[in-house]
Specification:
Layout (H helix, E strand, L loop, with lengths): L12 H15 L2 H8 L9 E6 L3 H12 L3 E7 L9 E6 L6 H14 L7 E7 L2 H4 L9 H14 L3 H10 L7 H6 L3 E7 L22 H10 L6 H8 L15 E7 L1 H12 L4 E4 L4 E4 H17 L8 E10 L10 H13 L5 E7 L11 E4 L3 H8 L3 H6 L3 H8 L2 E2 L10 E7 L4
Parallel strand pairs: 1-2, 1-4, 2-3, 4-5, 5-6, 7-9, 8-9
Antiparallel strand pairs: 9-13, 10-11, 10-13, 11-12
Helix pairs in contact: 1-11, 2-3, 7-9, 9-10, 12-13, 13-16
Length: 429
């Protein structure tokens, strides 16, 4: 994909950062990556398309643009549906699963009951699939799965830990979807939203065997101070029903990643390289959102101290997935919280602007991608009658930025390669 370089950021830094984010999202459009990973022509015989995730409907649209109408069913987030001619699109809840997701997952599994040797199953998996592809293990109810999901989201546990636990209490995750596709040939196309891009971590690895254990899940629940419902505790103590990495039912499965965070960071860097010095801090950063926002703001100020008038601006880019340990009563998300912590640290420091957004357009559970900040944050906070530090303490980043006018709202982006962060450091004037 080629695109024109961006204009110099000096005139409108926040518009520049927003344009960078748009470039990052565009680079992860399934219309680019999915056709490139498909066989050139639709396989002979029966072809069944299944999948789940916030990008899955767009992935299905890309498949039909390449192969024509197909049989199948994919599950996506409410508002993320796309028009398809043959593949049925079902919308359900994310990040906490709902009855619509459970019913659609059961229907998807019934479709797989009919596959035979010689059939071809195409699986379309992206971030969000852990909630959308929802079939609780025997003895666990949807309400109990919802309670566990909410507790994990509030605990601050990394996504890898959350997904490891989800695999153990599911009838579809951790390789079970691939096992259900046997004896058909299965090609699973994935868009990565996880640090490290491990296929087994994307949407809790429905087409990848699981190396963990129920005992591991119990240990992680205790480590992150999450008390599971009694049914979950009992199921895990029984040992569960894992699909191992070497399970013979996975022998006809191929997993391919079609888009990843590194590609989006590279697209943003390419767009800005004509006017900025680029420093990529990594595409797999994790940890507490406020700690990362504070650290990157401090790094930006230190870099600016080494610049002289007339130097090129410096652009810090990073991705990954940070988390929030909720102790307050506000409304927030990890990207917005990172920006609020950065704003507190910068406290109006001149010449530094920053943006943090989730590439799926949803930061936490809010219909907000994230936030963009600049040196005028103290003035904006005062005008809105808000205290930045108090808002951070209350985990109220979304509420705060809604009042100051710093939210970034994109609507559904139809893709998901996780967090995108950019700090723009202008030289002293």
């Amino acid at each position: 994909m080629t695109a024109e370089p961006l204009a110099h950021p000096g005139a409108n830094p926040e518009a520049f950062l927003r344009a960078l984010f748009d470039r990052a999202v565009a680079a992860a459009d399934p219309m680019i990556g999915v056709p490139a990973a498909l066989p050139p022509r639709k396989p002979d015989g029966r072809v069944l398309v299944i999948g789940a995730g916030k990008a899955s409907a767009r992935m299905a649209e890309a498949v039909e643009a390449h192969w024509g109408p197909c049989e199948g069913l994919v599950i996506t987030r409410y508002g993320y549906g796309r028009p398809c001619k043959g593949i049925e699109i079902v919308e359900a809840a994310h990040p906490v699963p709902d009855a619509a997701g459970v019913a659609a997952t059961r229907r998807l599994l019934r479709l797989l009951d009919s596959v035979e040797e010689g059939d071809f199953v195409l699986s379309l998996i992206s971030g969000g699939g852990s909630a959308l592809l929802c079939a609780p293990a025997e003895g666990i109810t949807l309400s109990e799965k919802q309670a566990l999901t909410e507790a994990l989201l509030a605990s601050g546990a990394p996504i890898g830990v959350m997904n490891g636990i989800r695999k153990e209490i599911s009838a579809v995750k951790g390789g079970r979807l691939a096992a259900a596709s046997w004896p058909a040939t299965l090609l699973s196309l994935m868009i990565s939203d996880v640090p490290g891009d491990a296929p087994g971590d994307i949407a809790s690895g429905p087409t990848v065997g699981h190396a963990g254990s129920a005992a591991d899940a119990l240990d992680k629940l205790a480590e992150w101070n999450v008390v599971p419902p009694a049914s979950v505790q009992a199921f895990l103590e029984s040992g569960g029903d894992p699909v191992a990495l070497d399970d013979p039912r996975l022998s006809r499965t191929t997993n391919v990643i079609t888009a990843a965070p590194s590609q989006s960071l590279a697209a943003a860097a390419k767009a800005a390289e004509a006017c900025c010095d680029i420093r990529v801090l990594g595409d797999a950063l994790e940890g507490e959102a406020r700690d990362l926002g504070t650290e990157q703001a401090q790094r930006a100020m230190a870099i600016q101290n080494g610049l002289a008038p007339g130097d090129r601006p410096v652009l810090l880019l990073s991705g990954g997935e940070v988390t929030v340990t909720r102790t307050g009563e506000g409304t927030g998300g990890p990207n917005a919280e990172a920006m609020l912590a950065a704003a507190v640290t910068l406290n109006g420091h001149p010449g530094i602007h920053a943006l943090a957004c989730d590439t799926d357009g949803v930061d936490g559970a809010a219909e907000v991608a994230g936030a963009v900040i600049g040196p005028d944050m103290p003035q904006r906070a005062a005008k809105a009658g808000r205290d930045m530090t108090a808002a951070l303490t209350d985990n109220d980043a979304h509420g705060f930025f809604a009042q100051t006018g710093n939210q970034v709202v994109t609507g559904p982006t139809l893709t998901n390669v996780n967090d995108f962060r950019a700090f723009l450091i202008l030289p002293p004037s």
